From TrEMBL:
Name the record gives this protein: Nicotinate-nucleotide pyrophosphorylase [carboxylating]
GO terms under biological process: NAD+ biosynthetic process; quinolinate catabolic process
Family per similarity comment: Belongs to the NadC/ModD family.
Keyword annotations from UniProtKB, A to Z: Glycosyltransferase, Pyridine nucleotide biosynthesis, Transferase
Reaction equations catalysed: nicotinate beta-D-ribonucleotide + CO2 + diphosphate = quinolinate + 5-phospho-alpha-D-ribose 1-diphosphate + 2 H(+)
Organism classification: Bacteria, Bacillati, Actinomycetota, Actinomycetes, Candidatus Nanopelagicales
The organism of origin for this protein: Candidatus Planktophila limnetica
Ranges for domain Quinolinate phosphoribosyl transferase N-terminal: 20-104
Length: 274
């Protein structure tokens, strides 16, 4: 996946209307280099095409990917080889590394959550807790880590949360209003206790979000719905207790941390002047 407009803005931000002072002073205009993007950690890679497109944006087109997004790599793995104008490569270096490190961090963290529930039917999926302007890329990185995506935007589907429920006067009223005004939209509704779940079940929601329930309550909810609707657990879930929720039988575990708290994946650029 490539977002060329984001790349343009990122490079413009780095230059801030000026030039790369250090490279202009230390490198001749025609200096050539060869370089390698190298993983410093073990994890799942995402953002290879964004890095290569960043290089291309500054005129460096001789870049070869040695791995693909979604690949599990070891520390020391060469991800991309590139050669060309030294000033261009150094201009693109930090922006390319920022994209590659951030997206690979998301895919790596996602893969760890996916591994934590391996062997169950539960899927790990993201939320809208994304970096403004980077949602599509961050959700792409989640998929590369083996996770699944929740709605991309507010207009994709309805998610009736506690504030909507309070404003409407209850779960039944809130669901009925949304269904009346947007009858073809997918509707997910949040409940924070089993009675709310019982109240909304006759309305046949496609998905119910179990908010801040423990694994035992989630297991009760699974038994209560008996397959009539899909269930998603959210709130108070950690990678350490994720398996308990998965074994309770929920269909999804929503994890905002996949995008808002993923650590950067350490990648370096090793360069040789020709």
């Amino acid at each position: 996946m490539i977002d060329r407009e984001l790349i343009k803005r990122a490079i413009a931000e780095d230059l801030n209307g000026g030039v790369d002072i250090t490279s202009m002073a230390t490198l001749s205009p025609d200096a050539k280099v060869s370089a390698q993007f190298v993983a410093r950690n073990e994890g799942v890679i995402a953002g290879i095409n964004m890095a290569i497109a960043t290089l291309a944006e500054v005129g460096v087109t001789d870049a070869t990917a040695l791995v693909k997004d979604g690949d599990l790599v070891k520390s020391g793995t060469v991800l991309i080889k590139v050669s060309g104008n030294a000033r261009g490569i150094l201009l693109a270096e930090r922006t390319a590394l920022n994209f590659l490190g951030h997206l690979s961090g998301i895919s790596t963290l996602t893969s760890q959550w996916v591994n934590a529930v391996a062997g169950t039917e539960t899927k790990i999926r993201d939320t809208r807790k994304t970096t403004p302007g980077m949602r599509a890329l961050e959700k792409y990185a989640v998929r590369m880590g083996g996770g699944t995506n929740h709605r991309l935007s507010l207009s994709d589907a309805a998610l009736i949360k506690d504030n909507h429920i309070a404003a409407a006067g209850g779960v039944v009223a809130a669901f009925s209003l949304v269904h009346e005004k947007f009858p073809t939209s997918e509707i997910e509704i949040e409940v924070d206790n089993l009675q709310q779940l019982r109240d909304v079940l006759p309305l046949k929601p496609g998905l119910v979000l179990l908010d801040n329930m423990d694994p035992e309550q989630c297991a009760e909810a699974v038994a209560l719905v008996a397959g009539a609707t899909k269930l998603e657990a959210s709130g108070g879930i950690t990678i350490e207790n994720a398996r308990a929720y998965a074994e309770a039988g929920v269909d999804y575990i929503a994890v905002g941390a996949l995008t808002h708290s993923a650590p950067n994946f350490d990648i370096g650029l090793d360069m040789e002047v020709e």
